[in-house]
Description:
Blueprint: H1 3-27, H2 36-47, E1 58-63, H3 75-96, E2 102-104, H4 107-116, H5 118-129, E3 133-135, H6 150-168, E4 174-176, H7 187-192, E5 198-201, E6 216-220, E7 226-231, H8 243-246, E8 276-278, E9 285-286, H9 292-296, E10 299-303, E11 306-311, H10 322-333, E12 338-339, H11 342-350, E13 358-359, H12 376-401, H13 408-420, H14 433-464, E14 466-467, E15 475-481, E16 491-495, E17 501-504, E18 510-511, E19 513-519, E20 537-543, E21 552-560, E22 570-573, E23 577-581, E24 585-590, E25 596-601, E26 606-607, E27 615-620, E28 647-653, E29 657-664, E30 670-678, E31 684-692, E32 697-704, E33 711-716, E34 719-724, H15 730-733, E35 738-739, E36 743-747, E37 751-758, E38 762-765, E39 771-778, E40 807-819, H16 827-835, E41 839-842, E42 846-847, E43 853-855, E44 857-861, E45 864-871, E46 878-884, E47 890-896, E48 900-908, E49 916-918, E50 924-929, E51 934-943
Parallel strand pairs: 1-11, 1-12, 2-3, 4-5, 5-7, 6-13, 9-13
Antiparallel strand pairs: 6-7, 8-10, 14-42, 15-21, 15-41, 16-20, 17-18, 17-21, 19-20, 21-43, 22-23, 23-24, 24-25, 25-26, 27-32, 28-29, 29-30, 30-31, 31-40, 32-39, 33-34, 33-36, 35-38, 36-37, 37-40, 38-39, 44-47, 45-46, 46-51, 47-50, 48-49, 48-51
Helix pairs in contact: 1-3, 2-10, 3-4, 3-5, 4-5, 6-13, 12-14, 13-14
Amino acid sequence: xxxxxxxxxxxxxxxxxxxxxxxxxxxxxxxxxxxxxxxxxxxxxxxxxxxxxxxxxxxxxxxxxxxxxxxxxxxxxxxxxxxxxxxxxxxxxxxxxxxxxxxxxxxxxxxxxxxxxxxxxxxxxxxxxxxxxxxxxxxxxxxxxxxxxxxxxxxxxxxxxxxxxxxxxxxxxxxxxxxxxxxxxxxxxxxxxxxxxxxxxxxxxxxxxxxxxxxxxxxxxxxxxxxxxxxxxxxxxxxxxxxxxxxxxxxxxxxxxxxxxxxxxxxxxxxxxxxxxxxxxxxxxxxxxxxxxxxxxxxxxxxxxxxxxxxxxxxxxxxxxxxxxxxxxxxxxxxxxxxxxxxxxxxxxxxxxxxxxxxxxxxxxxxxxxxxxxxxxxxxxxxxxxxxxxxxxxxxxxxxxxxxxxxxxxxxxxxxxxxxxxxxxxxxxxxxxxxxxxxxxxxxxxxxxxxxxxxxxxxxxxxxxxxxxxxxxxxxxxxxxxxxxxxxxxxxxxxxxxxxxxxxxxxxxxxxxxxxxxxxxxxxxxxxxxxxxxxxxxxxxxxxxxxxxxxxxxxxxxxxxxxxxxxxxxxxxxxxxxxxxxxxxxxxxxxxxxxxxxxxxxxxxxxxxxxxxxxxxxxxxxxxxxxxxxxxxxxxxxxxxxxxxxxxxxxxxxxxxxxxxxxxxxxxxxxxxxxxxxxxxxxxxxxxxxxxxxxxxxxxxxxxxxxxxxxxxxxxxxxxxxxxxxxxxxxxxxxxxxxxxxxxxxxxxxxxxxxxxxxxxxxxxxxxxxxxxxxxxxxxxxxxxxxxxxxxxxxxxxxxxxxxxxxxxxxxxxxxxxxxxxxxxxxxxxxxxxxxxxxxxxxxxxxxxxxxxxxxxxxxxxxxxxxxxxxxxxxxxxxxxxxxxxxxxxxxxxxxxxxxxxxxxxxxxxxxxxxxxxxxxxxxxxxxxxxxxxxxxxxxxxxx
Length: 944
């Protein structure tokens, strides 16, 4: 079918839907006749081949609609139009069909309706009280469930559930995530600690290589939290009854590999085997290392008789059509089912709880793996915004405790913009080009508002400090550490080009410092493809601060003049290579190839690289379907030549660091890489700039290590996951492109190496399984606008779709060799530091009461850490979020600056409800923290 015909047909379908809505209005004026005979015939026909009769099943018909906040249309159209149409149709159906009810997720949509269609919102409130409108989900939107960091998942639930509580008088106990592209292993903990007992989804039925083995299971997080989770196929979409769930699979041992590269739901045939109950008395805890045979050995031949018939048009909303509703009513009249609620469905499932397996792993979607890389700018923007909010809330809380106003409303407003852009078609890069213009406006607002609030808090705090220079001509600089532990990484201060400064501490001691110019893209996470950040140079003064206090401040002083000469990393340049070394490590770059040919750990007397690394790999990437979503099967067979090296040179050298620049200038795509080694750190920082004009290409950076291990470790939101380096089980093998948060690690019992990143989320392993291939760019075709889309480039309907990721890009990575494993070396803390720079501000002399150096909060623990502080939502209390980071039970002592007294202490859930009193001392609180547990502590403090 030609493109114009497709457009016309899609438009007719849309008009037809609106016509059916009008048909529902007519039905209110006359007695409705249900299609009982035809439904009976269809139902009995659909059950053929299942071995089931109507009386064998307990069916609940559940009306709902999936709405994409933005995708092939812009968010404002969803806010003003799509929610109005969908919610309005639902109200019309409620008023037309007395037993009909409607489920809707995403408090963001409710807030839009409240803002743009207040009369409709009042009707929703009316029918919600009657139990006819059912709010589900609890998260602000249905987000991507791999890329947001841990605190973002907390805020999705915090602001989502509390919106429901404020407007509806209650929260929801059902997490609702129909369409996200995979689900991180810690999601059950976020859900369970936010009031949810259940979760509903569908997306894993799209797996390309293996049928996910269970349609209903207890999903268990690393800490042991569980939610009863239901996966149901909704294809063809919409479907009035899930016959596919009851039909046998057409494949053996769940394996779809012969048809790989195509969404598995199209070829699985059925999912009956995923509905089998465990044998009476059997227990099964499975993960991606569990074989199909081990699962099958625990299954009975009894099928789960409870069935959820989820129906209603989605993506663009609209919801159940009158014809669909009447089919469900006919099913009910026949005695074959009932119009029910999702809560009733899950309660019916719970009757079989003892015969349901536990899934103790992530839920990996074997499809759409490219979304972790496509449109790389928004990935950096998201990571930078998350770090900005972490910094803002830390300094704002500190200033608040010393008398400043806390900008709660503005903080929430900006958090909601971040959460909106974490929606599962925005952050993944799978939306129209215009959506990213909107996102750019949102992230710019977050950046501007956030930095202004930080400036206000710093100004308020500064006035409370005693800042008195230890000599003449010294300019104070206030440094604030927003992380919950002591740190000593370099501090940078932007200065004017040509300026020279010395740096002193409070005692008058000069500190090591260095001045260097860098491209704007080094530190501006909002640099996008067209900002020219690779050409703009900024000057910075760097200095070594010594120990910076946990969640605290320290004052330093600048004085014009040239810094004293101090010894820094050594440089040895020969004809063939450049070698840089400090007391801990050395690295070498080959001048001919530009590759990293050595990373040697002097402490261990160990070379860390097995072969040349920091290698740019490019592959032609033309998947069969979903260009922006998918990665081509066997893309490795189609390499794209990478530009040859044009220059390798020492770019900066001083007492604090040495930087080597590798350039590859070519057409259409060029690269620059800066490799930096500091004087007092074993970490090798690698920043890659790309001026990219390749089409449909996947770009990776390869690092090959000498570490032989059977597992690769990666951070996930507020937890860690281990995956196989040499997978043997089919669904483990399918995890080729793996999600990661801020770091991944390869270790043996003696040593290891971590790869830390800023704003990168997808990686694969090298063929040997002892190194990474970090995905840094994926150019793809933008999706096509929906026919009813407004204010979009409609020319894309008639011309080839424009390509994503054209222009400038930045990749920030770092290699960290270490003794022992990642736990011993606290890799997770280094990764936080890499992603969360200290806050720096020029100050003035002050005569306040507070010392020039102090820590507000600290935590003594072997493996727990303070992840976030903020003002409480409901009162003047302070929230301290504590996370166990190493997967072991531990003890922790939370210490508060002696300037404050703990009046009372409570533990709440993640949404700051259900407080339980804790016993605390005057300035400390002792806790037992479970493995990977997230604890939310609420303190009421009083100044002494």
